[in-house]
């Protein structure tokens, strides 16, 4: 978890199950199944849960090279190009420079890096501020793309962070 994430944050799946069991209908949730781009073996799932503090992001990704990988929400929910360039650039409705979501100015689509272990598995639980999945406001991310990159994000190079090729792409859709 990043420094702003609550220490006791429940994984999204437990939160949804608890609310449903209590008859509360549960929070608004969305999901982006990740598919490999051409020549890649990366796959996984990114879940999103709307909350009072922001949107909880729960990412589980496999098939990565060990180490750090850029991870972003992109403008378009289009993964049709073999290299996922059809997803466009980073989601940035506020016109901010690219940067770390943990400090300073950044695109709304900038997320903390995925860090893959020696087996190529990465897990990330974080909270994004300024985005929504409830369909309201300029920060709505439903229908946008999620991209996993081949290399680490330097959080400096404009406008992409120099994170290399796109190795997986998914489209964020509401869950019912």
Number of strands: 10
CATH architecture: Sandwich
Query: What kind of sheet is the major sheet?
Result: 8 strands, antiparallel
Number of helices: 1
Explain briefly what this protein structure is.
Belongs to the Cu-Zn superoxide dismutase family. This protein has one helix at 12-21; strands at residues 29-36, 43-51, 54-62, 67-69, 71-74, 114-116, 122-128, 145-149, 166-171, 173-174. It is mainly β and 176 residues long.
Can you give a write-up of this model?
The chain is mainly beta. The chain has one domain: Superoxide dismutase, copper/zinc binding domain (Immunoglobulin-like). It is built from one helix and ten strands. The strands form two sheets. Strands 1, 2, 3, 5, 7, 8, 9 and 10 form an eight-stranded antiparallel beta sheet that branches. Strands 4-6 form a two-stranded antiparallel ribbon. A hairpin with a 6-residue loop joins strand 1 and strand 2. The longest helix has 10 residues. It starts with 11 loop residues before the first helix and ends with a strand.
Lay out the secondary structure.
Layout: H1 12-21, E1 29-36, E2 43-51, E3 54-62, E4 67-69, E5 71-74, E6 114-116, E7 122-128, E8 145-149, E9 166-171, E10 173-174
Antiparallel strand pairs: 1-2, 1-9, 1-10, 2-3, 3-7, 4-6, 5-8, 8-9
């Amino acid at each position: 978890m990043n420094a702003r994430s609550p220490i006791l944050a429940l994984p999204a799946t437990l939160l949804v199950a608890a609310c449903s069991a209590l008859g509360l209908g549960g929070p608004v949730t969305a999901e982006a199944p990740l598919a490999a781009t051409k020549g890649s073996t990366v796959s996984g799932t990114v879940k999103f849960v709307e909350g009072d503090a922001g949107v909880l992001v729960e990412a589980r990704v496999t098939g990565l090279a060990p180490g750090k990988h850029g991870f972003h929400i992109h403008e378009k929910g289009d993964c049709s190009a073999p290299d996922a360039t059809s997803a466009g650039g980073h989601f940035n409705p506020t016109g901010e420079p690219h940067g770390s979501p943990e400090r300073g100015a950044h695109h709304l689509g900038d997320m903390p890096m995925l860090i893959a272990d020696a087996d190529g598995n990465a897990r990330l639980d974080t909270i994004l501020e300024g985005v929504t999945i409830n369909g309201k406001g300029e920060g709505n991310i439903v229908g946008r793309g999620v991209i996993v990159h081949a290399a680490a994000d330097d959080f400096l190079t404009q406008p992409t962070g120099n994170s290399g090729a796109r190795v997986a792409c998914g489209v964020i859709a509401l869950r019912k």
